[in-house]
Design brief:
By secondary structure, this protein is an alpha+beta fold. It has 2 domains: 35 residues; 110 residues, Arc Repressor Mutant, subunit A. The chain is built from 6 helices and 3 strands, in the order ααβααββαα. The protein has a 3-stranded antiparallel beta sheet with strand order 1-3-2. The relative contact order is 0.10.
Length: 148
């Protein structure tokens, strides 16, 4: 029954989100903090821009669940730090496009390298097959969520 599946999926998604933040996000961020002056939401913004390349304020706001008013001041701060670039949308002058600056891209590469090293340390205690299965399940989960 779909309702029963929905209940179980909801429970697992909430559990996953909590565990993801507890096991990865918080420890990684606390270890990275002494090496970066980025706040949590700054990191989220430059991370999504690294993946998506260029987004509008509305797209960033929706993707990260950050109010547009708060997002504007976060973007202003990142512009001041020369981490992101604002430009006008050539198709709609009312819209501003936000993208990473070369400095922002360098910072993201450095952060990603840090996270990859930390992830490798975490995964060393597992058998190779277990890691491959986890990776495959994550890929399937992401693909499924993209279809929703």
């Amino acid at each position: 029954m779909i309702t029963e599946d929905s209940k179980i999926i909801y429970k697992h998604m909430m559990t996953f989100m909590g565990l993801f933040h507890e096991k990865f996000v918080q420890p990684f961020r606390s270890e990275l903090a002494p090496h970066s002056n980025l706040k949590k939401n700054h990191f989220k913004i430059i991370n999504i821009l690294f993946i998506e390349k260029t987004l509008t304020l509305t797209e960033i706001s929706k993707a990260l669940d950050i109010e547009k008013g708060s997002l504007t001041s976060l973007i202003d701060n990142l512009v001041e730090r020369e981490m992101v670039i604002r430009s006008n949308d050539p198709n709609d002058r009312r819209k501003q496009l936000i993208s990473l600056s070369p400095k922002g891209q360098e910072e993201m590469v450095r952060i990603i390298d840090f996270y990859i090293d930390k992830m490798s340390e975490y995964l060393e205690r597992f058998e190779r097959e277990e890691v491959k299965e986890f990776r495959s399940n994550l890929e399937k989960s992401v693909d499924f969520l993209k279809k929703l």
